[in-house]
Amino acid sequence: MNGFTSRWLYRAGARPGGARLVDRVLAARGIDPAAPDAAAFLDPRLNHLHDPSLMPGVDRAAARLLEALRAGQTIAIYGDYDVDGVTATAILYHMMLALEPGAASRVITYVPHRLEEGYGLNAEAIGELARQGARVIVSVDCGVTAFAPAARARAEGVDLIITDHHNPPAEGEGVPDAYAVVHPRAPGSRYPFADLCGAGVAYKLAWRMATMHERSARLTPALRAMLVDLLAFAALGTIADVVPLVGENRVIARFGLVRVRESPFAGLRALVEASGLDGEKVDTMAVGFRIAPRLNAAGRMGHARDAVELFTTATGERAAQIARELTVQNDARRRVEREILEQACEMAEAAGMTRPDRRAVVLAHENWHPGVVGIVCSKLAERYSRPTILMQRRDGLCSGSGRSVEGFNLHAGLSACAPMLERFGGHDMAAGLHLFEAKLPAFVEAFTAHANGLIDEEMLRPLLRLDCDAALGELTPQAVRELDLLEPFGRDNPRVVLAVRGVRLLERRTFGSGARHLSVLLRAADGGSGWGSVGPVVRAIAWDRADLAPRLTPGMALDVAARPALSHFGGRTTVEPLIVDLRPGREE
Q1: What CATH number has the domain bearing residue 580?
Q2: Residue ranges of the alpha helices (H) in 12-102?
Q3: pLDDT score, position 1
């Protein structure tokens, strides 16, 4: 919340009156409340998932993996070092062992070291896995642009199966010369849903392996149960990778979240406990702020193979030990993150990168931890409303990450500067890159010029998307419960934000440790019926926004952007909205 500074932009929703509130919100999100799509959105079912055989390359990949399992060949699962890659690795590992329980010693996992090897498939690792006896290597969450590693695999006599979801090569460039490429957006694909994450693609491959193993779409109870349990991993990858939570991703997240706390996998249960979520509801917020950071901490501060072990082979005390170590690493990551954030803000402002005439932040520093800069990028992009790239300078090379803002394609921006880069990869909103330090000044200017040409001045103000207007009297506990049916919330399906206009501020006060939070009492300006059963006055909360208090005067008119929420304090259920933004309202 920026308070009096955000751009308020409505979706397509109606003003108060007429349709019930949840229907207006659905309409604002492009869903016809009267169409079957609305019922499917509010009540997703597992049978809404698409047939995995529609995925390009999946039949050829599944057949080869099943052949390798039956023939006793060694299979290497090559994963990425983030949550998506770790969970995708776990999905294929557990499905392979479910189909061939005696294959535990022949299914090996590999994840590159984030700092020493970098992102994605690399030829050296392919060669090492071949020397270890791997006859099949299956990548997860990486590989769709790995032309050289694919050539190395072929030279080594290894069948490489690539499963990925990142942007494929440009049209006309083809795909790597692999045994199979499983990708929802592969050239010529007719797969109905393009936005699966790496774990989602791995889940489809695991599902297809199961149906081909049984030679039927009807699976044994054990395999059906395994696929349901694996949804927990797929949900973690889907949420952590910030893919759109619509379509299949919504189904995966909805049903996978239910399985997280009750998972049969010891490592996942240990991580839930270490995250302080034992006995609590696990929702997208819990994954995004408590579970995922611990998993990512392994790759950022140590080695992601620990997270892979946690989700594949670890049990008992070993699982608990790894989960505790991930918590320690995450605490260290948070300290480093705060230090980099403060320094990066100072550097960006000193370099003039936050001025209206420079619409990108590109910085490098020798002391920045490359495993943490991506998180700081997100914070700077949000703070300054600019695409942000942060890198570590080391031995003449700059390596780091970038994060974007709505309306600016980061991958396209890097492509426009490709001659200055050693390598890069990613998608519209996030990417990684490497370049020689000598080319950094030219890259800064070229990327900034590209951003300046596409980001107008209005885009530099934070954007707040509103679903629709709502009258105070509409926001009853029942209406809020209906809005909760839109969960799970995430990218392309954010938490509902309503505009409540023409309210009168009766009182404001700060509270909490250090008086950090703001509480306000609001009343409809016309003295109307008020918020549900509360009457004409409602209490609303703005967390960590006590700084707004001096700008609020009792009696002033306000327009309030708020997320509807319920309070159960004292055993009584009332609506207590969470304030997202405020601005002066029109005096009647």
Answers
A1: 2.40.50.140
A2: 21-28, 36-42, 58-71, 83-99
A3: 43
Amino acid type, 427: H
Q: Note whether 232 and 217 are same-domain residues.
A: yes
Among residues 417, 401, 405, which one has the least CA distance to residue 344?
401
* Separation CA 28–CA 16 (nearest Å): 13
Is the domain of 369 the same as that of 449? Answer: yes
Check residue 533 and give its pLDDT: 39
Same domain, 164 and 300: yes
Let me know whether 321 and 285 are in one domain. Answer: yes
SS3 content of the chain, % helix, strand, coil (to 5): 45, 20, 35
**Domain around 478:** 7-29+467-584
Question: Residue 4: what pLDDT?
Answer: 57
Same-domain pairing of 436 and 480: no
Q: Kindly report the number of other CB atoms within 10 A of residue 185's CB atom.
A: 16
3-class secondary-structure state, position 32: coil
Please identify, among 413, 436, 460, the residue that sits at the C-terminal boundary of a domain: 460
Q: Domain check: are 384 and 474 in the same one?
A: no
**Cα 360 to Cα 365, 433, 448, 452, 542, distances in angstroms:** 17, 16, 5, 8, 30
| Apex 448 CA angle, 447 and 453, nearest 5 | 100
> Which of 267, 294, 329 is the endpoint of a domain?
329
Helix axes 83-99, 221-240, angle to 10 degrees: 170
- Hey, what are 27's tokens? 């309409």
CB atoms near residue 71 (< 10 Å): 10
pLDDT at 529: 42
Residue 117 lies in a domain: yes
| Average pLDDT of adjacent 10-residue blocks, the chain of 588 residues | 67 61 93 90 95 97 98 97 96 98 96 84 96 98 95 98 92 91 95 97 98 96 98 98 94 97 96 93 94 92 93 97 96 93 97 95 94 90 94 94 92 96 87 95 97 90 89 87 95 93 91 92 65 61 91 92 91 91 79
Nearest to 87 by CA among 283, 287, 380: 287
Residues 226 and 86 occupy one common structural domain: yes
How many structural domains is the chain composed of? 3
> Which pLDDT score, from 0 to 100, does residue 531 have?
40
CA 503 to chain centre: 35
Residues 150 and 251 grouped into a single domain: yes
